[in-house]
Amino acid sequence: MPLLTQNIDDLCDTNILSELARPLPNQGVIEWAANVSTIYLSVITVDEIYFGLTRRPNAKILKWFEAFLANDCQVLPVTAEIAKRAGEIRGQLSLKGKVRSQADMLIAATAEVHELRLVTRNERDFKDCNLVVVNPFSEDSDD
Fold first, then answer.
1. Per-residue pLDDT for the chain (143 aa), expressed as one digit of tens each?
2. Sign of CA dihedral 86, 91, 93, 97
3. Handedness of CA 2, 20, 104, 135 (dihedral sign)
4. Distances (CA, A) of 115 to 40, 79, 85, 111
5. Nearest 5°: phi and psi at 28?
6. Cα-based distances in Å from 86 to 50, 101, 117
7. Could you write out the DSSP letters of every residue in 83-138?
8. CB 21 within 8 A of CB 51
9. Rounded to 5 degrees, what angle do the CA atoms 81, 83, 84 make?
């Protein structure tokens, strides 16, 4: 029986978009994308994708990404509330000796403020951030 799209909204991390742009994406990522109602991106993820495409140009992926931005997702800005929350999370983790990047904490705060699940392959980057983190990569992948 085919899976039906669920009423779930997810914030997508950069590595998930990179996977979707591959010629043969991981099956678990394909299934996740087919069953989510709305994909949100942080403006930080948009920056990271364009950074990567500037360093290693790929016209096909650029075209795919720009179509994805225009038609298949919603981009969320970093607001003052998100910046404040990111600083708090980073500060709290730092007090425990856990160093996290500013970019990752801005993404984490975006998910928290908007009450979204965070979809990423890099679960450890968001450990102890009090988020629902989803890793859609299937176990049988050799990636």
1. 344 445 678 999 999 999 999 999 999 999 999 998 889 999 999 999 999 999 999 999 999 999 999 999 999 999 999 999 999 999 999 999 999 999 999 999 999 999 999 999 999 999 999 999 999 997 654 44
2. positive
3. positive
4. 11, 15, 13, 6
5. -65, -35
6. 22, 10, 16
7. HHHHHHHHHHHHHTT----HHHHHHHHHHHHTT-EEE-S-GGGGTTS---EE----
8. no
9. 65
Element (H, E) at 39: strand 38-42
The single-letter code of the amino acid at 81 is E
C-alpha separations of 78 from 42, 46, 84, 136 in Å: 7, 12, 10, 25
| 95 vs 22: CA distance, rounded Å | 39
Query: Phi/psi at 83 (nearest 5 deg)?
Result: -60, -40
**Residue 7 · residue 37 · CB < 8 Å:** yes
All structural domains of the chain, each given as residue ranges with its CATH number in brackets, are: 9-77+117-134 (3.40.50.1010)
